[in-house]
Amino acid sequence: MFERLRHMLVKEFLQILRDPRMRFIIFGVPVVEMLVFGYAATTDVRNIRTAVYDLDDTPQSRDLVARFSGSRTFQIVRRLGREAEIRDILDRGTAKAVLRVDRGFAGDLAAGRSARVQLLLDGTDSNTAGLVMGYAAAIVASFNDRAALERMEALTGMKPPGPLLAAASRAWFNPDLESRNYFLPGVIALLLMVTTVVLSCMAIVREREIGTMEQILVTPIGRLEFILGKTIPFALIGYLDVVLISVVAVFWFEVPIRGNPLILFGSTGLYLLSTLGAGLFLSTVSRTQQQAVMTAIFFMLPALLLSGFIYPIANMPSAVQWLTYVNPLRYFLVILRGVFLKGVGLHVLWPQMAALALLGAGLLLLAAGRFRKTMA
What does the CA dihedral 366, 268, 188, 28 come to, rounded to 10 degrees? Predict the structure, then answer.
């Protein structure tokens, strides 16, 4: 049995390496897509192009503008001279925000009245607009506190006491709140699913298309050896892709890895049971490689949307939340972020690993049963 399995594995590896498309999917696609995701998949709000329409043009108004331009969130790209330019610059997308300071700004501050300042935003991207409004409110609050203290000192001649309560916040696991530290471990799970599902779903279909399936079935190779010969090479390729993508994430994008890499590799094997099982099952229900690829896309897109990678699972309807429990990507995302960012071990991650083991075993048994029924 082992000799036949060895010949099967050698044949499968040689067949994969001879195909340039397969070599590109194995080595090129993961690295290229990791670089693309690393630079594109970010929600950090920085350098928002901002125009200034300062009608007051006093030291106080210029101080407020300087606070905006001195932050990482806002980048002053233009100063407007007419009211009509506000609508035009937002329509064209030259700026995403306009800071408008009305006349009498400095006078209102000196008199203790509320001064008028307005931030006009391009609300096309509601999420970004909401974050920018929060940053702007923090800058205005800081300016307001300083102006109030200066006015009190000018009126009383006494320096006001410092704050009695000072709040200090600290973010664990991702101190700089870099969104790529959150997204890139998830990209590893996504790319691993894409690579292994696509490759494995074409495995049996390819044999059927080129007419070698019947030849294999009349040889002494059993069905178990055939399935192992089709899955083990793609499992090894999956491990190779995890190493490549992790190296890019850690050394290129500087994503920390605080946990034990052995837990990462062990959970990767459990995750591969699910992806390879799903790929083999899709291969048994497809007649051509084009059908197999389209069916794989139909499987992977809902898995991505229901994994929590893009949208929080807690925000989904209750019925959809129950559906996510049969999604292996959901559990592997928790493991990856736990290993990379939190540095937790088996005592925390064992429920996710157990779920992956159950799902993987179930999908492989389903694929094996479907294969026997198809070949009968």
Answer: -80
Helix (H) or strand (E) holding 50, with range, is: strand 48-54
Q: Which residues pair with 78 in a beta bridge?
A: 51
| Residue 203's pLDDT band (cuts 50, 70, 90) | confident
- Tell me, what's the pLDDT at 338? 93
- pLDDT category of residue 151 using cuts at 50, 70 and 90: confident
Q: Give tens-digit pLDDT for 67-91.
A: 998 888 899 999 998 888 998 999 8
Given pLDDT bands bounded at 50, 70 and 90, which one contains residue 354? very high
Between CA 326 and CA 303 the distance in angstroms is 9
Among 307, 71, 35, which residue's Cα sits nearest to residue 180? Answer: 35
> What is the CA 117 to chain-centroid distance, rounded?
36
Q: Is the dihedral of CA 69, 75, 77, 81 positive or negative?
A: negative
Rounded to whole angstroms, the Cα distance separating 188 from 242 reads 7
Res. 98: pLDDT tops 90: yes
Structure tokens at 301: 């897109």
What is the pTM for the complete model shown? 0.78
What is the DSSP annotation of 101-145? Answer: E-TTHHHHHHHTPPPPEEEEE-TTSHHHHHHHHHHHHHHHHHHHH
What DSSP character marks residue 163?
A: P
For residue 230, CA distances in Å to 242, 244, 368 come to 19, 22, 12
Phi, psi of 19, deg, nearest 5: -85, 115
Q: Which residues contact 309 (CB under 8 A, 6 or more apart)?
A: 186, 189, 190, 329, 333
Q: Among 268, 284, 257, 245, which residue's Cα sits nearest to residue 328? A: 268
